[in-house]
Design a protein that fits this description.
This protein is mainly α. 53% of the residues lie in helices and 5% in strands. The protein has a three-stranded antiparallel sheet with strand order 4-6-7. It has a two-stranded parallel ribbon with strand order 1-2. A two-stranded antiparallel ribbon has the order 3-5. A hairpin with a 5-residue loop joins strand 6 and strand 7. It is elongated. Pathway: Amino-acid degradation; L-histidine degradation into L-glutamate; N-formimidoyl-L-glutamate from L-histidine: step 1/3. It is found in: Cytoplasm. It catalyses: L-histidine = trans-urocanate + NH4(+).
Length: 530
């Protein structure tokens, strides 16, 4: 059986989509699998291949456990305490203790989708046949996810090396029937009660199993996968708002000509330019009207929009490649090899994932920065080529969108702070045994905040640009631009007029972008954007 099977159609519409996890030796699960489980509530099934792989690896661990020779994670302590040989009568207690002691997170709860993603990705590795976990433990992991039970995982506790230890420990604690978890109704209760309600027996961990449940990059990887999915929509959205701003400023779309981008063949740049050109096709504003100060060239924030957004797209492509490789990986320490060896390794180090998480945060900050500069240009009567100050109805009596740009600027300033790399830091732990760590979890957490804020930044540009286009009375926008304007107005984002309470308009614009409605509206005219 293939590693994964996604069942869609009518079953998916009823919330019955399922992901079947196989043996994982050739490839890991896909991005769509992760999103289906984390965000779509897809049900998980273990294939016969997965069960066979689990049983085979467990047989190897059981054989080693019966021998007198110490094996890390099977018959020894952990980390800096790995030098102690653990007698058979204490090994179950050892596995329980590592889960309990490592479930030491603090701070606010992380989001349900993050917990579901990291649990599913841990299950994927468990089913790879490289961890030595028994089939019944893997089945319990699937059962907990399928029941809609979400362990309480806290913001702080992972250094991104030896895996996302504390977050994964809180998940393992739920499997043991301990700690707290959120039920399918959203209420946090003791995990044991929730398991009992759903007929799930708590697991009794055996040799190596506690360690195997904790030792992975699953949290940071899950957040990377979801960020990439969100950014795919946001980069298309930014191309659309950049095109709307170009139109509102009576700019020239000649700079979007494909032959200009072909001589600097970065694929992301070409895609962004093509998207902008598609949105502007048929515009009665771009390239046709100039004021008393003719422009030879538009400002960088307008003219170089494809170059900046395109660089971000190429960064995303690199990050997606890293995610695909990590999804195909079995991250644990020690690992069970096909020839029967159980070997220590360093594959749990989160550097590959941490670097691209930080790289994406830089790209997100820059995309937000250029969008804010375009918005500011729309509001400045000295640079907007005939638009009223702050797009106000009666400037002086009305302030227009002055403070909307303040809000956008505050968001961009925060994006710049979030762009400082977490992975450049390392704090030794475990008595200097774990003396270099990735901080990948921290990189992922700040990227989630950055993506959230970028959505708001783009929403403000959308709000300003659509208002500005409508203020160009007598001029006809591109059909795609008109489709966007009509859709955003229908979504409750009001157009030009006297000052009013702006926060609801901005919230509606944010929701419009966040739900993908901006891209959908443009694509009714352009067809699929790149």
């Amino acid at each position: 059986m293939d590693m994964h099977t996604v069942v869609s159609g009518e079953g998916a519409k009823r919330g019955l989509e399922r992901v079947v996890v196989g043996d994982g030796r050739a490839a890991g699960v896909t991005v769509s699998d992760v999103l289906a489980v984390a965000r779509g509530g897809a049900r998980i099934e273990l294939s016969d291949d997965a069960v066979a792989a689990l049983a085979a690896a467990r047989g190897i661990v059981d054989a080693l456990a019966a021998k007198p020779d110490p094996v890390y994670g099977v018959s020894t302590g952990f980390g800096a305490l790995a030098t102690r040989h653990i007698s058979p009568d204490l090994r179950a207690q050892l596995q329980r203790n590592i889960v309990r002691s490592h479930a030491a997170g603090m701070g606010p709860r992380v989001e349900r989708e993050v917990v579901r993603a990291l649990m599913f990705l841990r299950l994927k590795t468990v089913c790879s046949g490289h961890t030595g976990v028994r089939p019944e433990v893997a089945q319990t992991m699937a059962d907990v996810l399928n029941a809609g039970i979400t362990p309480v995982v806290h913001e702080y506790g992972s250094l991104g090396c030896s895996g996302d230890l504390a977050p994964l420990s809180h998940c393992a604690l739920t499997l043991m029937g301990e700690g707290d978890a959120e039920g399918p109704d959203g209420t946090v209760r003791p995990a044991g009660e929730l398991l009992a309600e759903h007929g799930i027996a708590p697991v009794e961990l055996r040799e190596k199993e506690g360690l195997a449940l904790l030792n992975g990059t699953d949290g940071m990887l899950g957040m990377l996968v979801m960020a990439l999915a969100d950014l795919d929509t946001l980069y298309k959205s930014a191309d659309i708002t950049a095109a709307l701003t170009m139109e509102a400023l009576l700019g020239t779309d000649k700079v979007l000509a494909p032959e200009l981008h072909a001589i600097r063949p970065h694929p992301g740049q070409a895609a962004s330019a093509a998207n902008m050109a598609a949105v502007l096709k048929g515009s009665g504003l771009t390239g046709h009207h100039q004021d008393d100060a003719p422009r030879v060239q538009d400002a960088y924030s307008v003219r170089c929009a494809p170059q900046v957004a395109g660089a971000g797209r190429d960064t995303m492509a690199h990050a997606a490649l890293v995610a695909e490789r990590e999804l195909a990986s079995a991250v644990d320490n020690p690992v069970v090899l096909p020839d029967g060896r159980v070997e220590s390794n360093g594959n749990f180090h989160g550097a590959p994932v941490a670097y691209v998480l930080d790289f994406l945060a830089v790209a997100v900050a820059d995309l937000g920065s250029i969008a804010e500069r375009r918005t500011d240009r729309l509001l400045d009567k000295n640079r907007s080529h005939g638009l009223p100050p702050f797009l106000a109805d009666d400037a002086g009596v009305d302030s227009g969108l002055m403070i909307a740009q303040y809000t956008q600027a505050a968001l961009v300033s925060e994006l710049k702070r979030l762009a400082v790399p977490a992975s450049a830091d390392s704090i030794p732990s475990s008595a200097m045994q774990e003396d270099h760590v990735s901080m990948g979890w921290s990189a992922a957490r700040k990227l989630r905040t950055a993506v959230d804020n970028l959505t708001r930044v783009i929403a403000v540009e959308l709000y300003a640009a659509t208002r500005a286009i409508q203020l160009r009375e007598g001029l006809t926008p591109a059909p795609a631009s008109q489709a966007v304007i009509e859709a955003v107005r229908a979504a409750g984002v009001e157009g030009p007029g006297p000052d009013r309470y702006l926060a609801p308009d901005l919230a509606a614009a944010d929701a419009f972008v966040r739900a993908g409605h901006l891209v959908a509206a443009a694509e009714t005219v352009t067809g699929p954007l790149r």
